[in-house]
Specification:
The structure is a single chain. The chain has one helix at residues 104-107; strands spanning 21-24, 28-35, 41-42, 50-55, 62-71, 77-81, 90-91, 95-98, 112-123, 129-143. The protein is an all-beta fold. It has one domain: Sandwich (Immunoglobulin-like). The protein has a 4-stranded mixed beta sheet with strand order 2-10-9-5, with no helix packed on it. Strands 1-4-7 form a 3-stranded antiparallel beta sheet, with no helix packed on it. A 3-stranded antiparallel beta sheet has the order 3-8-6, with no helix packed on it. A hairpin with a 5-residue loop joins β9 and β10 (129-143). The longest helix has 4 residues, at 104-107. 22% of the residues are buried. Mean pLDDT is 81; it is low at 1-14.
């Protein structure tokens, strides 16, 4: 006599957690005004604040942030602080310096766009990773 068993077996203690996922608080846009032709300007600390929410996977979560330039046609922007990694779910240490504000004649009076991305890689307690990206747009406005 043979006994047939049909069904699904699960290993005792096996995790049925959902896959690791992350979302960010959204893109950041702001204007930076300074006198046209000024030698320098910069964003203030906390002007750029991005938060990430992680879920699923296996807690605890670790956060690694990287900021990178995505648009700077006049080659006048740079990151002065907040580079590297932050272990926090909130990234608010990024400061962007502008080496020289464009002259109004150069831009036709239009704002000059500067772009950066902030990428956060979230790693859970078992080494699974996921990534989320926020865009940072700065409109440089040279005042007379």
């Amino acid at each position: 006599m043979y006994l047939a068993v049909a069904g699904v077996c699960a290993q005792q203690g096996a995790s049925t957690s959902t896959p690791l996922s992350a979302s960010n608080s959204g893109d950041v846009s702001f204007a930076l005004e300074a006198q046209a032709g000024a030698s320098a300007a910069s964003s203030d600390a906390d002007t750029i604040t991005i938060s990430v929410s992680a879920s699923g996977g296996t807690a605890p979560y670790r956060y690694a942030w990287v900021a990178a330039e995505s648009q700077d046609d006049l080659d006048i922007a740079s990151i002065s602080s907040g580079t590297g990694t932050s272990s926090s779910a909130t990234y608010n240490t990024l400061v962007i310096d502008i080496s020289a504000m464009p002259n109004i004649e150069e831009t036709g009076g239009e704002p000059v766009p500067i772009g950066y991305t902030a990428t956060c890689t979230v790693t859970d307690g078992v080494g699974s990773t996921t990534t989320t990206v926020a865009n940072i747009t700065i409109s440089l406005i040279g005042t007379p």
